[in-house]
Design brief:
Layout: H1 3-25, E1 29-33, E2 39-45, E3 54-60, E4 66-75, E5 78-84, E6 100-102, E7 114-122, E8 125-136
Antiparallel strand pairs: 1-2, 1-8, 2-3, 3-6, 4-5, 4-7, 7-8
InterPro entries: DUF4944 (IPR032545)
Keywords: Membrane, Transmembrane, Transmembrane helix
Pfam families: DUF4944
Length: about 140
Amino acid sequence: MSNKIKVIIGIIIFLGLVSLLHGLMRAPIWVGTTEDGEWKIVYEKISVIAPAEWEGSLYWQGDEEVFVENYGLYINNKFIETITSQDIPQLEDSSNLSLVDYCFGRQINSTDKLTVNLTWIEDESVKVEKIDLKMKRRYIPFY
């Protein structure tokens, strides 16, 4: 095997190890979905500099129009905050809604248990769902 091929293989292995270490050192993300898969919640650290800047995002993946009444965030079964419909920006065409962004803003540890209680109106009926979030690591660099 020529030296050129050895160098290329070495660089590929080095970059792979750096990517893996970068993913292990990054703060994990917390992800949860409703049982029917219509809502997805992602809670993640958004700032490298400020340790307390965490953000929660609600993703509507259903076909109908919805109106978010409120949601409540619980960490380790302890109530943290609730946001009501007055504080939530609503979009007119929720069928195209890909991201509704709300900042929960609380730093969490890898041993914490996160739960979101979500209430929304769909087809003129009120729906309530408890969504448990699970910790996931990101191994892909810059994702």
